[in-house]
Design a protein that fits this description.
The chain has eleven helices and eight strands. The protein has 370 residues and is of the alpha+beta class. It has a five-stranded antiparallel beta sheet. Strands 6-8-7 form a three-stranded antiparallel beta sheet, covered by helices on one side. Strand 2 and strand 3 (221-225) form a beta hairpin.
């Protein structure tokens, strides 16, 4: 008689038949559970909450589902041994097989949910466009996983899902018609997720004139915080159809043009040299200037009382341009005064002689001069 046969003979004498199933289950479950615990102690560096490498995500996502796998494996081995006892095999085997399959399905669903959500978090941390819509995508994936899981569970327990799928199709059509505005906003959010016209933290301007920082891109709406510290809540469908200026794309740096006018008697070469010196000094000394930017001056035209020029500065981001321009204007005004460069007042001259000697206004003014 083999050792296994001796064990079964002893169990038949001392263990009630109804306790065979639980006893077999514990015999397999306890060692497998200990192995699982030891394995995660060995992998504790990969299981750290801040580890978002792909290996760390795979290990962390498997921690909870692996407990369900241990239960499923224990149930499978228990089923094999129970089949040796005809008294209980017919009653327990089928139920235990179904239960083992359910635990495996639940383990796969939980693993898929955890792995997908942590993967999105990892991509968000790396600066991907998912940062702006991570919550939206995580919620959508979780909903898909739950629906698929419920269908698999119903199929496993013997419930036909074909009528259910047909009913879901008809019901989905009715729900889609009833929730058309909500679904339009939802799919507009997905469209912005794929197209990435804006991201959380971007400073944008809408075609309606509002400007602000993107705070959140949600399921239904996008929140934009304006400079006066109030918030615009814009439906995703409206935002997706709007013209948007993104001042942070492709980068935050932007040019800051400043228009200046000098007197007609000015030496333009001298004006250009002085203006460039002031511009370079401001870009190097100001905390929001771009020191290595190659600034330049362009003379743009002859105005009524001045020769106009444009100076091109560079700021780190859109909101900083106001302070750069202000400091430059103050410094340029002071330096022009030191160099004797005149910024003229608007002047409008009346050439009365050109209008003809018969003009009554001309005659009156000439008489007054005389």
């Amino acid at each position: 008689m083999t050792v296994l046969e001796n064990i079964f003979h002893w169990m038949n004498q001392w263990v009630p038949i109804w306790a065979m199933g639980p006893l077999f289950f514990l015999i397999f479950f306890i060692p497998l559970w200990l192995v699982k615990r030891i394995l995660f102690v060995y992998l504790r560096d990969w299981n750290h909450p801040t580890n978002y490498n792909w290996s760390g995500i795979a290990v962390r996502a498997a921690k909870r589902p692996l407990s369900f796998v241990v239960v499923a494996i224990s149930l499978m081995f228990t089923t094999k041994l129970i089949q040796l006892y005809e008294e209980i095999a017919n009653t327990w085997v089928t139920q235990l097989q179904i239960l083992a399959q359910l635990f495996l399905i639940i383990a796969l669903l939980i693993y898929g949910d955890h792995f997908a959500r942590m993967s999105i978090t990892r991509l968000s941390i790396k600066g991907s466009g998912l940062k702006s819509s991570g919550t939206l995508l995580r919620g959508m994936l979780r909903a898909v996983i739950i629906v698929v899981g419920l269908l698999l569970i119903l199929s496993t327990v013997g419930i036909s899902i074909t009528p259910l799928i047909a009913s879901l199709g008809i019901g989905s059509l009715a729900v889609a018609l009833a929730l058309q505005p909500t679904l339009e906003n939802f799919f507009s959010g997905l469209q912005m997720l794929a197209d990435k016209p804006i991201r959380v933290g971007d400073y944008i301007e809408l075609d309606s004139g509002e400007q602000g920082f993107v705070e959140k891109i949600g399921w239904r709406s996008t929140w934009i915080k304006m400079l006066p510290n109030n918030v615009i809540i814009m439906p995703n469908s409206v935002l997706a159809q709007s013209k948007i200026i993104n001042y942070y794309y492709p980068e935050k740096q932007l040019s800051v043009p400043v228009d200046v006018g000098v007197h007609y008697s000015s030496d333009l070469e001298h004006v250009e040299r002085v203006t460039l010196e002031v511009a370079k000094e401001i870009l190097k000394s100001h905390k929001w200037g771009i020191a290595d930017y190659d600034t330049f001056v362009i003379f743009t035209g002859f105005d009524n009382s001045s020769i106009n020029l444009t100076v091109m500065l560079r700021a780190q981001e859109y909101f900083n341009r106001f302070f750069i321009r202000s400091e430059f204007i103050k410094a340029l005004h002071k330096r022009y005064a030191e160099e004797g460069i005149v910024i003229p007042y608007p002047i409008r001259a009346l050439n009365l002689d050109q209008e003809g000697s018969d003009n009554s206004l001309t005659s009156i003014l000439r008489d007054k001069r005389e």
